[in-house]
Design goal:
The complex is a heterodimer of chains A (about 200) and B (about 70). Chain A is of the alpha+beta class. In chain A, the strands form three sheets. In chain A, strands 1-6 form a two-stranded antiparallel ribbon. A two-stranded antiparallel ribbon of chain A has the order 2-3. By secondary structure, chain B is an all-alpha fold. Helices cover about 60% and strands about 0% of the residues of chain B. Classes of the chains: A alpha+beta (about 200), B mainly alpha (about 70). The interface between A and B is medium-sized, with 36 and 25 residues.
Chain lengths: ~200, ~70
């Protein structure tokens, strides 16, 4: 069975933030919440790297392990989703998540944060597929429509990959094999001369 | 000043006398029923496979692997 995964090709990400914008637009994500964000390391310096990050839909999700009300569940596609009806906004999942994926609509402690919101791999939540109720709570259900997450589909540099883990891993593996990595990559010396050694 | 101190003492005595007694009474009245915690079970319909390798999805794979996946 296919396992849904995200994979960001950091060599290709140009920090355009189009994935972030597309996600917010597609799911009508409220102000203050970013289900996806682009993290840049060594910003402005030679050799900087950008990675688009969101919920990575862990196999043994730490958010689910710490949730006091057990509102998380994993679908047959290995997508980690949660029920906003059960969520009490305690914030434990935010502390547990190594990627900072869980987001809250308000600032505060415990219930005052509001219900947790995170990337759903465009698979929405437990309500009926593509219903208004589902959209209002979780956003669009593109997976049920036979599509993939919009952030990956519209990535202009084909940096962000999403879909069947085995297929996108094969795509990435071939890319790495062909272009090399770091200083062994094609064009590296042209771009950075010999001053950068990564 | 002395009057304020006296008032504070009275308040504390009141809490000790009545608050403590009532808490004990409530604790005794409530009987906890032991049982196993129940995890959220969304059901088969919610967890079923939604991913399908449609033409749309195949096009995504093809476009992303155009330079690598030789058909």
């Amino acid at each position: 069975m296919a396992r849904m995964k995200f994979l960001c090709d950091a060599d290709r990400c140009i920090e355009c933030n189009a994935c972030v914008t597309a996600c917010k637009n597609e799911h009508d994500v409220p102000w203050g919440i970013n289900r996806r964000r682009v993290v840049t390391i060594n910003d402005g310096k030679p050799g900087e790297r950008s990675v688009s990050m969101a919920c990575m839909h862990c196999t043994d999700a730490p958010c689910a392990a710490v949730c006091p009300v057990d509102c998380f569940y994993t679908t047959a596609d290995a997508v980690v989703l949660h029920s906003k009806d059960l969520c009490i906004g305690c914030g434990y999942c935010f502390y547990a998540c190594p990627f900072g994926a869980p987001q809250y609509p308000r600032v505060g402690n415990f219930g005052s944060r509001g219900k947790m919101d995170k990337c759903t791999f465009c698979a929405a939540g437990p309500e009926g597929d593509s219903t208004e109720v589902e959209y209002a709570k979780y956003g669009a259900n593109r997976l049920a429509e036979g599509k993939l997450p919009l952030c990956a589909e519209m990535c202009s540099t084909k940096s962000l990959l999403a879909g069947d883990g085995e297929i996108i891993a094969a795509i990435y593996k071939e890319r790495v094999t062909q272009r090399g990595y770091g200083s062994g990559a094609w064009g590296w010396q042209t771009a950075y001369r010999e001053t950068i050694d990564v | 000043m002395q009057e304020n101190k006296q008032t504070a003492m009275n308040r504390r005595n009141f809490l000790r006398a009545f608050g403590g007694a009532s808490t004990t009474a409530v604790a005794a009245a409530v009987t906890l029923t032991p049982g196993e915690a129940q995890a959220y079970d969304p059901g088969e319909e919610e967890t079923k496979t939604r991913y399908r390798e449609t033409e749309h999805v195949k096009a995504f794979y093809r476009v992303n692997g155009y330079e690598t996946l030789k058909k």
